[in-house]
Amino acid sequence: MIHLHFTAADLTRVRFAVSPLMETVASLRTLAARRQGRHLHRPWIDRFAERAGRLRERDLDLLRALVRPEGYIPDFLVPRGLGRLWEEHPEQTGSALAGVLGHTRAALLAQLDLPMSTTQAATQMALSAPTLSVHLQALRAVGLLTSRREGRQVLYSRTELGGRLLSEAGRRPDA
After folding, report:
1. Of the candidates 72, 75, 64, 80, which has an alpha carbon nearest to the alpha carbon of residue 19?
2. Which residues does the UniProt record annotate as the domain HTH arsR-type (predicted)?
């Protein structure tokens, strides 16, 4: 079995990788070969059949419909999404942090756990790009954000310091 260990940051930079379904497809093809008289993997097939129990024809038919008997099966790797359509976000505008940074900058700091361009962040926050750019530069100047160029755009993301500040601001002070 192949074991690959990457951090989340490593995986966001992957452009080509071994298919995550490679072993599943190889196993399915081996099981299909059993019926065709090939017995190279007979010991493995026997062990698998004992352990699989109820994984029989009905379950394998679905996989067979999706996997051709031989040849390449395309897998498409896409970059991590930058949008947050389905996510819920805690409101930072009423927090103590908003009192120090301002509502817009506190909300911006909360938004940037994923890398975003100025345009993407401005769209999500319903602000103009030039206005948001001023806020991004201010947060970057104090070390709460970092920026990196990717192609024609500059992506901003929260630094570890920014994350700690945000999490500490979310806690209530001890009474």
Report:
1. 75
2. 92-171
